[in-house]
Amino acid sequence: MNKPEGNPKVNGAVSDNGQETYTRSGILRKPRTQSVTALRKNEPRPKKTKRSSEAFIAIHLGAGDHNLTVNKRDLYKSLCKTSCQEGMKVLLSGGSADEAVAVATIFLENSKLVNAGQGSSLTIDQTVECDAGFMNGSGYFGGVAAVPGVPNPILIAKKIADLHREEPLLSCGRIPPTCLSGLGAKSWAESNGIPTCDENLMVSDRNRKVYKKYIEKMQKAEESMSSEVSDTVGAIALDKFGNVASTVSSGGNWLKHSGRVGHAPVFGCGCFSHNNTKDKNAIAVSCSGSGEMLAKSHLPQCISKCVESKACLGLVDAVSTVIQKEFISNELLKCHKETKNVGMIGIRWDGRRGEYVWGHTSKSFIVAHLASSNEVVKVEFSELQENAIPGKSMKVNGVAF
């Protein structure tokens, strides 16, 4: 995969042209920062429960109306394949689901094709503010909101979750944060060895042009922004030891107010995970869509609860039921006038068999998955049926693994 063009120079990086800023796996390179090596060194080895026969990873590129040209379709496909392949390398080497979803998400954040990390949309003030969330199957969660000058916000979210495991209480009995925001999050990232950069360098030339286009539309009172691709990408994974993890990463809505927080860093709203137990199957879910509505509906957590309650016949039924009841028909969302766009990916693992599902109410949704038993990454450019109405109809598909 080609390295992203115009990568912001990271504080402490060793190259002005950006070519040495990235390791082969797409992680920003900086002394004493969260590189792949650092992730592997700091990552606890997966809990050695009964080894599963399968490792699995899936990613999504956001819900919306992608309106793809042939060239852009090829670019998206290449990005999906590389992200899944790099995540699978981690899993096949005995790494954890935690690390795999982080590596896969970092690849997405480093791309200018998607609305996350370095490809993020601009606020009304022409700045970039990112959200991200991470959760593993043991219940450790971390979120970051409206953070400027951090090319890979998923590293903050994951580090917050890691520190909760490593240090449940701070000195004097203080409770460590679950979510950090704004400049405080950037300062925390710097003190924890996570790469940061000048905030202006997060604004790409391409997105400056898009910003100008949207400002002109807004001045003409045109209502043509609601069909754009939504604000979240994400990943889910199952490692060889049956542990799961999930992520989301977001650039937010175009022309959002500075300081706006979407669903990605909110517990149970952007991603959700829990491992397999005597009473529960392992579940990992990642969601994309209208952040304000997803923050009210807690879809990932609701999908997990539906499977646990056995009220739903598997993950496909759970996704269909929850999207209809908790999103399309949710009374609390009637006050929202925007299209009810949502897209999600999820996996269920019972210790022997797995189920992978994707569903969406948006016009289109790009997803990809890779199982360790199959060397081929499967990329889906999923679309609603021709006469279906986005926000009122849904499409749900699934495969066993």
Q: Which key features would you list for this structure?
A:
401 residues, eight-stranded mixed sheet, disordered N terminus, Peptidase_T2, 9 helices, Threonine aspartase 1, threonine-type endopeptidase activity, Ntn_hydrolases_N, Glutamine Phosphoribosylpyrophosphate, subunit 1, domain 1
Total number of domains: 1
Low confidence ranges: 1-6, 12-33
Structural class, by secondary structure, is alpha+beta
| Biggest sheet overview | 8 strands, mixed
Mean pLDDT: 88
Question: How many alpha or pi helices?
Answer: 9
Gross geometry: globular
CATH superfamily: (Glycosyl)asparaginase
Q: How is the largest sheet built, in terms of strand order? A: 4-3-2-6-5-1-11-12
Q: How far is it from the N-terminal to the C-terminal residue, by CA?
A: 27 Å
Rg, Cα atoms, Å:
19 Å
Helix content: 25-40%
Instruction: Give the quaternary arrangement of the chains.
Output: single chain
- What is the name of the CATH class? Alpha Beta
Q: How many extended strands?
A: 13
Classify the fold: give the CATH topology. Answer: Glutamine Phosphoribosylpyrophosphate, subunit 1, domain 1
What percent strand? 15-25%
Order of helices and strands: HEHHEEHEHHEEEEHHHEEEEE
**Annotated CATH architecture:** 4-Layer Sandwich
